[in-house]
Amino acid sequence: MLLGSFSKVMAPGLRLGFLRAPAGLRRADVEADKSLAGADKSA
């Protein structure tokens, strides 16, 4: 798994990052992100 950010290269305020992981972990991350996004909307 590799996590990175382009913030230092482009602009500190941009907050652009990336995740490189095996397909199984990517699916789990997408599902976790969806559940967290749903929790934010109901708050």
Textual characterization of the structure:
- By secondary structure, this protein is an alpha+beta fold.
- It has one domain (2-42).
- It has two helices and two strands.
- It has helices at 7-10, 23-42; strands at 2-5, 17-20.
- It has a two-stranded antiparallel ribbon.
- The longest helix has 20 residues, at 23-42.
- The radius of gyration is 13 Å and the shape is flat.
- The mean pLDDT is 75.
Separation of the first and last Cα atoms: 31 Å
Task: Please give the order of strands in the largest beta sheet.
Answer: 1-2
Number of strands: 2
Succession of helices and strands: EHEH
Q: If helices are DSSP runs of H or I spanning 4 or more residues, what is the number of helices?
A: 2
Task: Provide a concise account of the structure shown.
The protein has 43 residues and is an alpha+beta fold. The chain has helices at residues 7-10, 23-42; strands spanning 2-5, 17-20.
Topology at a glance:
Blueprint: E1 2-5, H1 7-10, E2 17-20, H2 23-42
Antiparallel strand pairs: 1-2
Which features does this protein show?
43 residues; two-stranded antiparallel sheet; 56% helix; 2 helices; alpha+beta
